[in-house]
Amino acid sequence: MKHRLGKLFLLVGLVAVIAAGCGDDKKTTTTASSGAGTSFAAGTTMARIQQAGRIKIGVKFDQPGFGLKNPTNGQVEGFDVEIAKLIVAAIGPNVQIDFVESVSKNREPFLQDGTVDMVVATYTINDTRKQVVDFAGPYFVARQDIMVKKDDTAIKSVTDLNGKKVCTVKGSTSEKNLAAKAPSAEVTLFDTYSQCAEAMTDGRVVAVTTDNTILAGLVQASSGAFKLVEAPFSDEPYGIGVKKGDDAFRTFINDRLEAIFGNGDWAKAFEKTLGAIGLKTPAPPKVDRYTATPPAPTTAPASGGSGSSSSSSSSSSGSTTTTAN
Amino acid sequence: MTAPVLADALGPRARRKVLIASVVTGAALAALLGVAVQRLVDKGQLEWARWEPLTQWSVLKFLLGGLGDTLRAAFAGMTLALLIGAALALLRLAQTAVVRWLATAWTEFFRGVPLLLLIFFSYSGLRQYGIDISPFRALVLALALYNGAMLGEIFRAGILSLDRGQTEAAYAIGLSYWQAMLQVVIPQAARRMTPAIVSQLITLLKDTSLGFVITYEELLRRSRSTGEFFRNPLQVTVFVAVLYIAVNFTLSRIARRLEVRQRRRLGAGAIATTTGVEDLAVVSVSAAAAVRDDH
Amino acid sequence: MDVVLDNLDVFIAGLRTTVGLTLLSYAVALGVGIVIAACRVSPIPPLRWAGVFYVETVRNTPLTVLFVLFFFGLPKVDILFEPFPTAVIVLGGYTGAFVAETVRSGINTVSRGQAEAARSLGLTFPQVLRIVVLPQALRSVVGPLGGLFIALTKNSSIAAIISVSELVFRTDNLANETARAVPVYLGAAVAYLLVTIPSGVAFRALERRVAFRR
């Protein structure tokens, strides 16, 4: 019994060693390349990051053009990543960036509990979200559009989606816009847009709807199998999420955004990433330095799957605003 | 291979019939396999270009790193679950009624809810109380709570399955309750329950794949991103399924080996009274007759 | 707790889907399990091999991986099922492997003499199995089969990842919408316990009723 147990422990130990050896590369680390060694007022987020020499940033890992993890080298690539690097470069030239994967539904919690210092993840600015987080920017304005298969001619606008199988992502503004504009669409919900694209390839759904930029990346990746309908039905200003009430950090990011809009770095980042997947470089948007938190919107948030209680869930989400900090 | 249990030695006529049936069913199965392969070929799924990324070292390293993360979570979860299980089993056999009730309620709760719910709970739920929990820790916590309750039941069944005479004899030679537990009851119960414990641990290992819903970058999540990147999701998923099968199959083989040797040493009746000697699940089903969830 | 009471219809709708999914999958699992168990004890070698292959592959693959393989994999060869039927097939097929092992262990508890006596009466192998062995075998494994039912109820939650709007899918959405994860998930846990605990009691009662008094 003794030596058998010994063997079991040996086996278990071996497994542990292998497991430990395989290491923790969940986070992808990059160092910002340029920038001046500015000094910041004590107690600000910038000073803390400068002090620590590292920052945690939430980005998407599966969004072509914005944040896509390359499995061959472990790096995250895209426009959001470039913007993040440009901002961090202004905090300090040697600040290390840990990119943390954030899917649509965990962006607010990540900011609230400090898992990340900021979120640059195709994050639409809206009043519901402003109740719990604050936004710098916008640094880009996307528009919600529809992607269909190349040979589809039946879908020309959002109202054509009624009664059709449409895919979008859980907890996204696209889900809510879709529910508002095409209430009788049959909605399939996944965690990521790449699953939606796969579902459309497989013939499970006839359309995918979200921001045109995200769709552009998916169209590009489909090598001609998908196309954009080009009937945008909403403006989606992408902002940089920071912890609610961190106004100094927000102002700092806004200043920095205006600087890179002006000096051409923003356009370069765009050309390098979104330009490469076929988007024309637009004029930079105008930064919105809002001062007061707007009232919570009264429209019901979309509920998942089939039509569950939108009225009751809106009342409960209304009460959220009082408890959220 | 298992011999057919129901038929004794067959006569010449029956042997001929079996032979014919074998050829027919064999051909049918081969035809089925052929159709499947043909289908894969027709749809271009066997083209080398789709499998080639799986031969690149960087891709394999990425996936094996995921296997490492899977094993890391499984190992941490197992350790905690065994501790929780042992504690629960002892508490449920405690002499104070309140303690017993509390331990029973705890066990019934965590055994009765889906692991996926516990994973969401320990990730999103704890976050709302301002506890910054990493996906790894959330996954391990959920695995430990769920499997701890399962293992607690297995341990308890093992202890209860021992002949009362063992405890009585231990008391008779002057051992205290805890001495009897630790020196007489638990060693025998643990030995008796090894197969059931191992199969629960294999279940735990498989369940780590649920970590992908909270962005823990284990094997399955990495296979999804690899499949998206190279646009060969089917091939990568098949590869990953084979990896899982290899690991789990090896573990259950080792467990079976241990158990057969033990049986030889202790004599056939000592573990369980089934005729199927080699199979783990068979033994765990009957040995853990008091354990309801054998999965 | 208001958030649960205000959205009680979400929980009820989710629970209904969960129960429906579980019952259908369990029926599939029993069918698959009995057939595979019969294959594994049959005198025909290719059937035995196929049975072993099925049980070993399915049992050693995580259910999550099977879901991904069926939902995202099969369409690559133009086999497409809606999310709900996919869930029934995957859950039924997966649980079926465990049912097969359980039934086989039940078959092993039926004494050899029974089968030999039946054969000497001139029954063929399928007849021996159907008339003599299986009825006794199934009675002896009611307990473990009940355990599998409960495991299946809990496993049905994994269908959430393929957009089946069962209890976990709906409550996860609700938790995200309302940002009140704790009461919402607790409500879901209670809903599951409302199924799992009574089923445990029911199966134990059934087990006592059909048990042999030897």
Beta-strand percent range of chain C = under 5%
How big a fraction of the residues of chain A is strand? 15-25%
The average pLDDT value of chain A, as a whole number, equals 79
Shape of chain C: flat
Please give the count of helices of chain A.
Answer: 11
Summarize the helices and strands and which ones pair or pack.
The complex is a heterotrimer of chains A (325), B (295) and C (214).
Chain A: H1 2-21, E1 28-31, H2 45-52, E2 54-59, E3 62-63, E4 67-69, E5 76-77, H3 79-89, E6 96-101, H4 107-112, E7 118-124, H5 127-130, E8 133-149, E9 165-169, H6 173-181, E10 186-190, H7 193-201, E11 207-211, H8 212-221, E12 226-228, E13 235-243, H9 247-263, H10 265-272, H11 310-323
Parallel strand pairs in A: 2-6, 2-7, 9-10, 9-11
Antiparallel strand pairs in A: 1-6, 3-4, 4-5, 7-13, 8-11, 8-12, 8-13
Helix pairs in contact in A: 3-10
Chain B: H1 12-42, H2 48-51, H3 57-92, H4 97-112, H5 115-128, H6 135-161, H7 164-172, H8 177-207, H9 219-230, H10 233-266, H11 280-287
Helix pairs in contact in B: 3-4, 3-6, 3-8, 3-9, 4-6, 5-6, 6-8, 7-8, 8-10, 8-11, 9-10
Chain C: H1 2-6, H2 8-41, H3 45-60, H4 63-73, H5 83-109, H6 112-120, H7 125-140, H8 142-155, H9 167-178, H10 181-210
Helix pairs in contact in C: 2-3, 2-5, 2-9, 3-5, 4-5, 5-7, 5-8, 6-7, 8-10, 9-10
